Amino acid sequence: MQELDQKKTIDLLNAIMEFELAGVVRYTHYSLMVTGPNRIPIVAFFKAQASESLLHAQQVGEILTGLDGHPTLRIAPMEETFKHSVKDILEESLNHERKALEMYKSLLETVDNASIYLEEFARTMIGQEELHNLELKKMLRDFS
Predict the structure, then answer these.
(1) In sequence order, which residues have a C-beta less than 8 Å from that of residue 77 and are 6 or more positions away?
(2) What is the pLDDT of residue 142?
(3) Is residue 1 part of a domain?
(4) Cα separation of 138 and 35, whole Å?
(5) Is 4 helix (H, G, I), strand (E, B) or coil?
């Protein structure tokens, strides 16, 4: 086992926390903007995504404080595209989930061989983000 790079890990966890908190705002916004005959299940999907992003931010924050870090009060920057078709919203969501996947992969690289717990946490989150990517790709399939 190598020594954990505490500063790099804390900085990365703070960036992830900011990104997950932005996901809460993003998915809540999307849930409010969906219209059309399939609105109800899509709204439920986005509300669930918002809740999961909040849970992820809380989990990351617990780890951060456990490492003597200070959780951020910021959220990651978000762009308002003013495109609210279901296809546009799903594409934006897929881009968001791809970025989340990259961030958790960076966390895994950073903690690799330094902390079993953090490795397992990162792997679990990578698995969840990969699943979200697959789901969104399936949801977008009918639009191609």
Answers:
(1) 22
(2) 87
(3) no
(4) 20
(5) coil
